[in-house]
Amino acid sequence: MRKLKTEELHRLSVDEFKSMTKMPLVVVLDNIRSGMNVGSVFRTGDAFGIEHIFLCGITATPPHREILKSAIGATESVSWTYMESVAECLQNLKEKGFQIVGIEQTSASDHIQNLTVGEQPVALVFGNEVEGLSESVLPLLDACYEIPQIGTKHSLNISVCAGIVLWKYFEKWGANDPSWTIRGIL
Q1: What is the mean pLDDT of the chain?
Q2: For residue range 102-117, what is the model confidence (pLDDT) as tens digits?
Q3: Neighbouring residues of 79: CB distance < 8 A, sequence distance ≥ 6
Q4: N or C: which end of the chain has fewer CB atoms below 10 A?
Q5: Tens-digit pLDDT profile for residues 10-56
Q6: C-alpha distance from residue 95 to each of 101, 122, 123 (Å)
Q7: Could you tell me the residue range of the domain that residue 105 belongs to?
Q8: 28 CB contacts (<8 Å, ≥6 apart)?
Q9: Measured distance CA(182)–CA(31) in Å, rounded
């Protein structure tokens, strides 16, 4: 066994990534305090081929130093938009036909392993590191999922959470996309 060299990974160029078909999924970041977390979501979004990231409220935007440090160039491949109001962002997405899915522990949330995907595009909403999703977001949600945990803490870091949830969507949609299987992704 040996580690593969970068050129052996056959990664797409930024231009190839921008023109490829992506998962019908966007990420909405609701008041994320840490630029490092934002950058990590960009990097994960690149890894799983998401369409777009919406940065809302106090969420930092590129070229913020901490974002660039953890994104490692993904701010160039993943498109993004800043919107001050997360509620306005979600309402716009809902009007465009997106299913709005919150990642939060609520009285109505389901476990992430029960996730199902259909034809409708999805907007995944991740909340603040301390407060979670803004209260204004809850009435706009079509579904809500949480990651079950057995430890003493009640939450995961937003970048870890995003990685788990985006992988789950990637896995579910990829199972329906023969080109991913042919390329050896799933």
Answers
A1: 93
A2: 999 999 999 999 998 9
A3: 18, 51, 52, 53
A4: N
A5: 888 999 999 988 999 999 999 999 999 999 999 999 999 999 999 99
A6: 14, 12, 12
A7: 14-144+154-175
A8: 53, 54, 56, 86, 89, 90, 93, 123, 124, 125, 126
A9: 39
Among the listed residues 80, 81, 84, the one whose alpha carbon sits nearest the alpha carbon of residue 42: 80
- Is 135 part of any domain? yes
**Residue 139 belongs to a domain:** yes
Residue-wise pLDDT for 122-177, tens only, equals 999 999 999 999 999 999 999 999 999 999 988 899 999 999 999 999 998 876 66
- For residue 126, is it within any domain? yes
User: What's this model's pTM, rounded to 2 decimal places?
Assistant: 0.93
Radius of gyration of the chain (CA): 16
Q: Is 97 left (phi over 0), alpha (psi -120 to 50) or beta?
A: left
